[in-house]
């Protein structure tokens, strides 16, 4: 049953605009942490409200003054309250996340998609690859499958292999492969990075692996602790999986291939670990950092350093 206060809110607020404004105020007042795809309390509230009434996130402003039914109002109020009290990312409440302009199913078995790599995929990794020469793509630590599926859209002629160690994550990825009807183009593999894969040349290897150090993990806001720890923890310094990827990627890259890896907050540690490596740190117009790119010849040139760091 709605509380007395919530009943009064449902009676006094009527439009989509009203509930976006009210939700934004509540999120700001309760210091809800934002870090899963929205940057402001207003954006967070808009995402929840619009999803709850099955409207697109770019809904024309003229529709924001439409009157909601009492049932819709009560549902929105419940979602806003849950977001505050449970500290769950909104994507877990709506079971939807937008990545590279595409809708993905998500739940607590996977991290919420939010990587800046989306922007790179939308640009088809230009100018780093020749779009017409991309035939095989590998997505390591695929999680929800968002990177692999977005790559499949960007390169419709390419075969995409998507790898994860987690059975739970692969189950969610399978939902998204079916949702986007990518069964013929995207193949899911349960593997500890490259271990279960046959050696073949990939034109693009892309990964958003666990890269958070243990000390940083412990200090993250509660919203992050609603996500699977396996998707965050990268060992004592955050680089355990990153270094394994660097050490073995050379065996799986085509001669003109590229390796793109997100290391986020561990970027400084990685650069300090390999001070003479020419990591190219990518810039993103929509924000985000900590993503490096190496060409195949660079990965192979520094192979011995990566091996010695394992």
Radius of gyration: 21 Å
Helical segment tally? 13
- Which H/E pattern describes the elements? HHHHHEEHEHEHEEHHEHEEHH
Anisotropy-based shape: elongated
The side-by-side strand order for the widest beta sheet comes to 5-4-3-6-7-9-8
What does this structure look like?
The structure is a single chain. With 310 residues, this protein is an alpha/beta fold. The protein folds into two domains: 4-94, no CATH class; 112-309, Vaccinia Virus protein VP39 (Rossmann fold), CATH 3.40.50. Helix content is 39%, strand content 15%. It has 13 helices and nine strands. The protein has helices spanning 4-12, 16-29, 41-52, 70-86, 90-94, 117-122, 146-154, 167-179, 214-218, 240-249, 267-273, 296-301, 303-309; strands at 97-99, 102-104, 136-140, 159-164, 186-190, 202-207, 253-262, 280-281, 291-295. The strands form two sheets. It has a seven-stranded mixed β-sheet. Strands 1-2 form a two-stranded antiparallel ribbon. Helix 7 links the parallel strand 3 (136-140) and strand 4. The chain is elongated. The model has no long low-confidence stretch (mean pLDDT 95).
């Amino acid at each position: 049953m709605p509380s007395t206060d919530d009943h009064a809110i449902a009676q006094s607020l009527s439009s989509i605009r009203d509930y976006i404004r009210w939700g934004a105020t509540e999120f700001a007042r309760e210091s809800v942490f934002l870090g899963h795809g929205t940057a402001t309390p207003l954006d967070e509230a808009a995402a929840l409200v619009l999803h709850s009434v099955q409207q697109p996130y770019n809904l024309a402003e003229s529709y924001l003054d439409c009157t909601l039914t009492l049932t819709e109002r009560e549902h929105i109020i419940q979602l806003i309250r849950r977001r505050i009290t449970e500290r769950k990312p909104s994507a877990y409440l709506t079971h939807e996340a937008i990545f590279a302009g595409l809708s993905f199913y998500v739940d607590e078995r996977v991290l919420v998609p939010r990587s800046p790599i989306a922007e790179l995929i939308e640009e088809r990794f230009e100018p780093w690859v020749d779009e017409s020469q991309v035939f095989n793509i590998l997505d390591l630590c695929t999680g929800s499958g968002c990177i692999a599926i977005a790559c499949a859209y960007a390169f419709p002629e390419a075969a995409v292999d998507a790898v994860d160690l987690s059975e739970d994550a692969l189950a969610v990825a399978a939902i998204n492969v079916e949702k986007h009807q990518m069964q013929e183009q995207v193949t899911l593999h349960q593997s500890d990075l490259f271990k279960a894969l046959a050696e073949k040349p990939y034109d693009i290897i892309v990964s958003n692996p666990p890269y958070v150090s243990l000390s940083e993990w412990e200090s993250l806001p509660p919203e992050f602790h609603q996500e699977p720890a396996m998707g965050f923890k990268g060992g004592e310094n955050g680089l355990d999986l990153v270094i394994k990827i660097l050490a073995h990627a050379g065996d799986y890259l085509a001669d003109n291939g590229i390796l793109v890896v997100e290391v986020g907050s561990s970027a400084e540690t990685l650069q300090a670990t390999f001070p003479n490596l020419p990591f190219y740190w990518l810039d993103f117009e929509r924000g985000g950092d900590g993503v490096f790119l190496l060409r195949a010849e660079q990965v192979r040139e520094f192979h011995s350093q990566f091996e010695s760091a394992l």
